[in-house]
Structures are given as structure tokens and as C-alpha cells.
Specification:
Blueprint (H helix, E strand, L loop, with lengths): L4 H22 L2 H25 L4 H30 L8 H5 L3 H16 L6 E3 L3 H17 L2 H4 L2 H20 L3 E3 L12 H16 L5 H19 L1
Antiparallel strand pairs: 1-2
Helix pairs in contact: 1-2, 1-3, 2-3, 2-6, 3-5, 3-6, 3-8, 5-8, 6-10
Amino acid sequence: MLRFLPNFITLLNLISGCFAIHSAIEGDVRMTIVFLSASLIFDFADGLVARALHAYSDIGKELDSLADLVSFGVAPAFLLRWMLLEAMPQNVGGWEILLVNFPFIMVAATAYRLARFNLDVEQSTVFKGLPAPANALLVVAFVQLAQKYGWMDSLYANLQVGILWGFILFQTYILVSTIPMFALKFKNYGLRGNAMRYFFIALSAVVFVFVGFGGFFPVILLYIAISLLLKAKKD
């Protein structure tokens, strides 16, 4: 029974993602954050438990990707869709349907990103493209900041839509790109070889305590920028 525990935790990730989708459709940003946070915790915990119990399985690997697609692909897309609906006229129809549903391109990018990860043995210490959980954090933090500082009320609708489309295109690209990004995976817990990981975890904790969940927006952007700089330095 214990060997099934990692898969059970993965399914909790999936269920939390379903609740996050419902909250996102309703435009309840706070509860979307709560359920996505739960998904992130379960996504991290299933790997820890699997390593502790030596309970690795092919079905566990597939379940993990399916759960991540729901929690970190579909749920953030629906949250961005809600933002677009808020910016658009009340009666959406015709070509406007394409505008409103544009965030679903990010779901396709997330699915491709997860499938490639499952087949690429080189992504054990370095990721290629932005990991799906990090992309979900970027989205939810962006939406919370927009709501907190009145961005959704202070900009013209066309400008809001344009910014959102640009944000979605950026995310789609960064998800499917092959840009190497350092992974927060520890082979040992010493400082040597893990300095960047410890720095990033400490920075995220400080930002969360003093700024709140929205602080993950600049943190994830910094993560992307550092990865690009490391790539340029290596090249």
C-alpha cells in the first residue's frame, strides 16, 4: 500500500487543480491561489515520498504529467481567460471568442513541454524551457498583482487585451523553448554546487513573506533572466 502513496499524492495534485479551474472560471483569484498552492505542495511531495520509499513507476510518471497539465496548464489558462472576459464587452461573440479563448494555446504549450520532459533524459539537472509549475506561479502572481493594484480598472480594454496577448505569447514561447534553466533539484544538500538553488529558495521565501504571492512574478522573471545570462555566458 505504501508504494501507491506517491501516486495518491499525485492524484491530490490533480484534484486540487480541478478546484483551481473552478475558482479561476468564477474569477476567485484568492481561492485559485489556494488550490494551486496545494497542487504545488503535492507536486513537490510526491517526488519526495517516491524517493523515500523507492516507489518509482511508469504509471506514476505519466500521472504526474497529467496532473501537472491540469493544475499548471489548464487552471492558469482559465484564469487568464477570466481576465480577458473582464476586459472585453459583456456580450462576447463572433471573432471575440478567439480573443477570449486565446489562453488555451498555453495549455497546448504546457502539454508539449511535459511530453518532451518525459522523453528527454538530459533534463535531470537542467530544464529545457520554463517548467510548468513555474509558469503557473508566473500567471497567478501576475493576475493577483493586476487585481491588487487596480490594473484591471485603470487601463483601456484594448490595451489590457493587447498586454494579455503579449504575456500569453511570451509564456507559450518560454514553455516550448529549449533554453536551459537550472533545476531546483538537490543531489546532495551541501552548499557546493547548490549555491544558486539555495539563493533562489531563500529569495522566494523572503519575497513571499514581505510581498505576498504576487512577489513570485518578479522572482520567476528573475529566474528566466538568470537562466538566459548563464546560457549566454556558456555560449
